[in-house]
Amino acid sequence: MGAVDERDLGTFGIYTFDFEHLPAAGLRESVHELEEQGWRAFWFPEVGGREALSHAGYLLSVTDRIAVVNAIAQLAPRQPNATHGAARLLADAYPDRHVLGLGVGQGLPGVTPLAAMNGYLDELDALAEADNAPIRRILAAYGPKMLGLARDRAAGAHTYHVNVEHTAQARDILGPNAFLGVEHAVLFETNPDRAREIARAHLVPYLSTPYNLAKFHRLGYSEAETSGGGSDRLIDDLVFWGEPDSVADRLRAHVEAGADHVAVQVIGIEPGQSAVPQWRTLAETLLP
């Protein structure tokens, strides 16, 4: 497998769900803006119906420098040969600009997440060996076993909605050499009540799914803290809110804890509005 060099991505990048809903012209305009602002990496999920690898290919085709990271491409929608073939083409067409992030997502019926990922990687490795075309890949990982798999069978791990303490734990498991990319949500709102209201609305899906709840409980949050919309401590740890400088300092704590890269997700954008102004503020605060 290919290595992921944080120097290709920079220390901070942008993560958003918004690109799942924009028309192609809007995608092109928004990713151009990110590139012009100086961002070196763009991360996006696969949740709303757009196929992950073709989506990545389009974004790469309309930009010149920015790296595009699937975060994540789910296992179930594609057989390993389709994933390998698409990722191989992107690696050839856009050298060092695409990273394949893989995740179990909704899972495979009757198979544990770890077994599903191991089996999928077995098939990808066989294909890569057959055509001598290793692919840069990272794995969505939270628990110790999946993080160990990301260390041993990928270039590293991608985490989502975790606190700084988890980043330190993940670095210990991954060791010094594997890549660790951490997503974190932010909100430019200084009123605590309003900030937590917006953050709780954002976190509703994650506080109602068993695997996310298990993740939060492993991190030391009690059942009382993960119920009723989430305690203030949980909310404040998972969504950094406040003035831009304060938010930036809290994001840097992930780097200090061992992250190679932090993908920043801006929340609280009204429907029909764009996060471009917030991305610009973050660029002015975070980028060299």
TrEMBL record:
PANTHER family: 5,10-METHYLENETETRAHYDROMETHANOPTERIN REDUCTASE, PTHR43244. Residues 24-107 form the Luciferase-like domain. One of its GO terms (molecular function) is oxidoreductase activity, acting on paired donors, with incorporation or reduction of molecular oxygen. Pfam families: Bac_luciferase. The keyword S-adenosyl-L-methionine does not apply. Keywords: Oxidoreductase. This is Putative F420-dependent oxidoreductase. NCBIfam families: F420_MSMEG_4141. It comes from the Bacteria. InterPro entries: F420-G6PD/mer (IPR050564), Lucif-like_OxRdatse_MSMEG_4141 (IPR019922), Luciferase-like_dom (IPR011251), Luciferase-like_sf (IPR036661). SUPFAM superfamilies: Bacterial luciferase-like. The keyword Oxidoreductase applies.
